[in-house]
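Action item from last meeting closed. Structure (258 res):
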């Protein structure tokens, strides 16, 4: 861990440049740039609201905001981990030529996805205003689950980036897993419709407690649930530690496979 911190401090400028590069590449040749990060979840909210609001209107108050918060969190997690997965192969030439802390590549992808996707909270605030929802100081606590999700995504990204170096089909396998995670996350349906016997399985999904905490702070103006906070913190610590250990143990072999 000391080496990790020392390397980060020494190469922090490079890390910042990698984040900037990822953001620029994402919106290269785009006319409206970061606005796509706002329009995409907004359009998805409109579609999902039209399709599902009549079905769940009585069970979910402020359905558009409910859908939008779930969609934004899932979109960030999917983009961050998916781009981190391919980061080592994408930077193979640089890895072969000069020394760079290799964990910078998947981690910078996660951070750049975090920055661009957090712009999607602008439509969330606008939707809350349009629907006449109450605002309070509790809304500021949304940063807690967001940071926990960032740490979870870094850990998962490190694990995926390591596996993808040795197992090229991981990208295709993970796209299936992301679909499973999407349906295991209450994005457009209420948690109450899930049979109680299946809830323990649903809660294995790291997005599950995070989404609930975000909705607690934004929609219900309450503190995040203690159980959700404990689960999400445990996931963050677990995935980060496993990701760092797996990545550091295998990184010296990357050069033979990229």
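Sequence:
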């Amino acid at each position: 861990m000391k080496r990790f911190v020392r390397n980060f401090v020494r190469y922090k400028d490079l890390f910042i440049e990698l984040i900037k590069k990822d953001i620029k590449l994402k919106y290269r040749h785009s006319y409206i740039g970061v606005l796509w990060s706002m329009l995409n979840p907004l359009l998805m909210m409109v579609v999902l609201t039209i399709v599902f609001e009549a079905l769940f209107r009585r069970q979910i108050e402020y359905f558009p905001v409910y859908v939008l918060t779930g969609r934004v969190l899932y979109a960030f997690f999917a983009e961050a981990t998916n781009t981190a997965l391919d980061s080592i192969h994408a930077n193979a030439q640089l890895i072969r030529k000069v020394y760079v802390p290799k964990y910078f590549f998947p981690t910078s992808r996660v951070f750049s996805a975090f920055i661009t996707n957090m712009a999607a909270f602008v439509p969330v605030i606008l939707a809350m205003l349009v629907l006449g929802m109450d605002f309070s100081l509790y809304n500021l606590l949304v940063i807690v689950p967001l940071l926990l999700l960032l740490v979870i995504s870094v850990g998962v990204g490190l694990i995926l980036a390591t596996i993808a170096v040795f197992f090229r089909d991981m990208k295709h396998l993970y796209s299936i897993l992301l679909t499973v995670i999407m349906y295991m996350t209450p994005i457009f349906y209420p948690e109450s419709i899930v049979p109680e016997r299946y809830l323990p399985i649903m809660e294995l999904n790291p997005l599950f407690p995070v989404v609930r905490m975000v909705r607690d702070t934004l929609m219900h103006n309450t503190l995040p649930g203690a159980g959700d906070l404990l689960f999400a913190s445990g996931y963050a610590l677990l995935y980060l530690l496993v990701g760092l250990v797996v990545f550091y143990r295998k990184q010296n072999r990357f050069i033979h496979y990229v």
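Note appended to the action item: The mean pLDDT is 89.
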